[in-house]
Write a structure and sequence with these properties.
The protein starts with 7 loop residues before the first strand and ends in a 23-residue tail after the last strand. An eight-stranded mixed β-sheet has the order 14-13-12-8-11-10-9-15. A seven-stranded parallel β-sheet has the order 1-4-3-2-5-6-7, sandwiched between helices. With 477 residues, the protein is an alpha/beta fold. The protein has 16 helices and 15 strands. A hairpin with a 4-residue loop joins strand 10 and strand 11.
Length: 477
């Protein structure tokens, strides 16, 4: 590994570029950790921008051995570098500092004020002052070259995730990114291949998989309480209209601009990840195809007409993103997963989070359950009565710190625990690629009038073998 870089890279006499300022834009919704996006960046990131894509079912030849079942290297202290210190990264650093056995070694963000604020949190926690990297959009490359970092965490704009994950692995670092992992199928395959070749884990840090309800349903499903699993549903339904038009919340219009570039499901991971875990996707079953449809794109334009002045720059934008996308994913075992996305219309927050089988079903928002023989009168049962099935993480940390009901802390705690103890991670690059594949594929399907699109087998056939995942036993410390 390379030697550590100098302890301060904040020289940027010209000040941050507009692109740099957008780089750290904050995130909204459960677990969203993303930064800014210019119109040009959005165009470059769109699935069609790279020219004709190979057929989705094409499986390139492996360039290394699988990362399935590969443990982290055991270490007593996990040295972390954080890229992106907007709303998401700036809050997640608190949780990294709250977990024992973590040292935050380096921070990177083009906006000096955000980096300085985060660095102060590190020293206030009693740790040495971290190295800071603020010299332009690509100073993260210098952070990744350091020889004293074990894990890189990236909470930056969507279109930067691929490049940052790639750079981290090429420099010998395990890496975790906020969703989505990448925006094109060829990028997903490259990250899979690079993880195998470098023997570094590349993870989609999907916090919703660690929600209390999600983990309880997971254990119940694996214990057979739902019988044979038949169907599930997940979503990201969150009214973001006010935030997307608020210049003080997002640093620039990056989030809104995606609605001028893609028609598909922009954000499938929060809904797809938990249901994939219930059904052991990539661990005995596989997502094989997706078919998507979308409504007209009317919500953002209607909101703009009612709330934005005539001279607002948003009036130059034409929205094409479906106000609501609905996708059906079929698995190799014939199960069906419904995914939905809607951030442009009035609706209470929901991730749907549903699972059904031959013995009954669970539905969230609000939580309710109907399982035979406990319920047999066509009335919903009380989900709280199933607390005995809570995952050991939630039994051990009944009142975790941090946002999103504690799921963020659970994610960080478990990640660090796996690295410190040298365990196999709860999910891997194959899961990350699978959960993200609906982004480009739903866009293609909608443009093809709902025609099914094949989902690649990122495991190259190894999905057929059952293996542990999120429902793991409590390790011995």
């Amino acid at each position: 590994m390379n030697e550590a870089q100098p302890q301060n890279h904040d020289h940027n006499e010209a000040g941050p570029s507009r692109r740099s300022v957008l780089w750290t834009a904050g995130a909204a919704g459960a677990g969203l950790g993303l930064g800014g996006l210019t119109a040009g960046q959005a165009a470059a990131a769109a699935p069609e921008a790279a020219g004709p894509a190979p057929a989705a079912a094409t499986t390139p030849e492996a360039k290394g051995k699988t990362m399935i079942g590969v443990p982290f290297e055991q270490r007593s202290t996990v040295r972390v570098g954080i890229i992106g210190l907007g709303n998401r990264g700036g809050s997640m650093i608190d949780l990294f500092l709250a977990v024992p056995g973590v040292r935050v070694v380096a921070l990177c963000d083009p906006v000096k004020e955000k980096t300085a604020k985060a660095a102060k949190k590190v020293t206030n926690a009693g740790q040495p002052a971290p190295a800071v990297y603020t010299n332009g959009d690509h100073d993260f490359e210098n952070l990744c070259k350091r020889g004293d970092i074990d894990f890189v965490y990236a909470a930056t704009p969507w279109d930067w995730h691929f490049e940052m994950a790639r750079t981290a692995m090429l420099n010998g670092k395990h890496v975790g990114v906020e969703c989505p992992l990448a925006l094109r199928l060829d990028q997903l395959w490259e990250l899979v291949d690079l993880s195998e070749r470098t023997r570094r884990h590349c993870m989609q840090l999907e916090n919703c998989c660690y929600g209390k309800n999600e983990m309880r349903v997971l254990r119940m499903a694996h214990a057979g309480l739902f019988g044979d699993l038949l169907h599930g549903a997940g979503a990201y339904i969150h009214d973001l209209r006010g935030l997307m038009f608020d210049p003080k919340y997002y640093e620039g219009p990056w989030r809104r601009l995606w609605h001028t570039r893609l028609r598909g499901d922009l954000y499938p991971n929060h809904g797809f990840g938990p249901v994939a875990n219930y059904m052991d996707i990539n661990r005995g079953d596989r997502a094989v195809r997706i078919s998507s449809v979308g409504t007209p794109a009317l919500g953002l334009a209607a909101y703009r007409k009612e709330h934005m002045p005539a001279n607002d720059p948003s009036w130059k934008e034409s929205y094409i993103e479906s106000d609501r996308t609905i996708s059906l994913v079929q698995t190799a075992k014939g199960r069906v997963i419904r995914l939905e996305h809607d951030v442009s219309t009035p609706h209470p927050y929901s991730r749907i989070n549903s699972l059904g089988g031959t013995k009954g079903l669970f539905e969230d928002y609000p939580e309710r359950i109907y399982l035979e023989p406990d319920q047999n009168n066509d009335e919903w049962g009380d989900f709280s009565k199933y607390a005995e099935w809570d995952h050991w993480l939630w039994k051990e940390h009944a009142n975790p710190p941090g946002g999103h009901g504690g799921m963020d802390y659970m994610l960080v705690f478990r990640l660090i625990q796996c690295i410190r103890l040298g365990l196999v991670p709860d999910f891997d690059v194959y899961d990350a690629a699978t959960w993200t594949a609906p982004v480009p594929l739903s866009d293609r399907s909608i443009k093809a009038n709902g025609a099914p699109q094949e989902i690649p087998d990122f495991t190259r056939g190894l999905w057929k073998k059952a293996r542990p995942g999120m429902d793991s036993p409590k390790p011995q410390e």
